[in-house]
Amino acid sequence: MPVTTIKYSTEAGRVSLETLYSLHKDLVFRTAYSVIGNKFDAEDVRQSVFMKLVQYGIPDMSNSAGYFYTAALHEALKLVRTRGRYCIDGEDKPPPEPSTDGSPFEARMLEELLDAMARLEDRDVELLVLFYQKGHTDAEIAMLTDRTRGVIRAALVRARYRLQKILGSEGERQ
Hints:
By secondary structure, the protein is mainly α. It contains seven helices and two strands, in the order H-H-H-E-E-H-H-H-H. The protein has helices at 17-36, 39-56, 64-83, 104-119, 122-133, 138-145, 149-173; strands spanning 87-88, 92-93. A two-stranded antiparallel sheet has the order 1-2. Strand 1 (87-88) and strand 2 (92-93) form a beta hairpin.
């Protein structure tokens, strides 16, 4: 997937909000939807990300796609944590069972994984989602997040370790 990078060469030295919105609205929506799984909440996240630009101004960005991906991911995670992984449709109700074609064991494992992911720090979730769910290489993640490949590889190892530690401690309690 190609990454769009904006060169700041307008008269004012900045790109307009309209240009940023038209270039990155789909990226923000897809990122939020991949975390939340609900198109209405993903749209709320998209609005929130762009409203923050209206409120606080457009920061200088060397990698606009990385900025919007990270902003969408953080807003989506904040929404998931705020709602405690429950839908709010006038009343709190548990989410539907994860859809798997396999056994109830696979469904339970998926639920445990999602619970463990919710307990990780944002930066760990970001790396794990980019690597495992989105299928990006460490080089692509480095470009999106403005870090080096070595830093990404080391951070992925640490994120996997933290996830294994959380999953291991849950298994010991049950």
